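Final report, closing paragraph on structural work. Over the funding period we assembled a curated collection of sequence-structure pairs, and we close with a single example.
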Amino acid sequence: MSDAHGVLSNPARRAAWDHEHHHDLLVRRPAPPALAGNGGAAGTDDALARLARLACPAMAGVAVVAPPWADPAQGVYSISVAAELAGLHPQALRIRERDGLLEPARSVGGTRRYSQHDITRLLEITSLAGDGPNLAGIRRVLALQEEARRLHAEINRLKAARRPAVGPPG
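Its predicted structure, as stored:
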């Protein structure tokens, strides 16, 4: 899409273009049963499928393939963009990595690529550092937070496994 005709700079024209071309952003193929109905697997693909159904009811039953930038764990930001998003200097990101608090993905050429998860972690680290703990304390807090997330996920998995399957009486 080019802005030669003011499509990007004019919100009304951009909305019209998006509406007209939204099918170009979807891959048409039969949807897995989990995405075809109202429910579905949790996550980005399900959210995109719900959005597609709302935007265009004719698209119900069509699987939506999430682009790589939609995955919050996918490293897509360069160090300068990640630093700006986190409100830090790029050197601060290198220091956090050297200290073992952050581990960004690397491109084939070795360039750091930060994900949305990395940005969130940087914001947590910055917040913790402002509260006063030293480097070891920040590491410990982050490890405990990760352990708590893991345990909550395990509890939810076990609860789901205990629930009886709900189906038609038969």
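DSSP finds seven helices and two strands in the chain. Residues 79-160 form a domain with the Multidrug-efflux Transporter Regulator; Chain: A; Domain 2 fold (CATH 1.10.1660.10). We thank the funder for supporting this effort.
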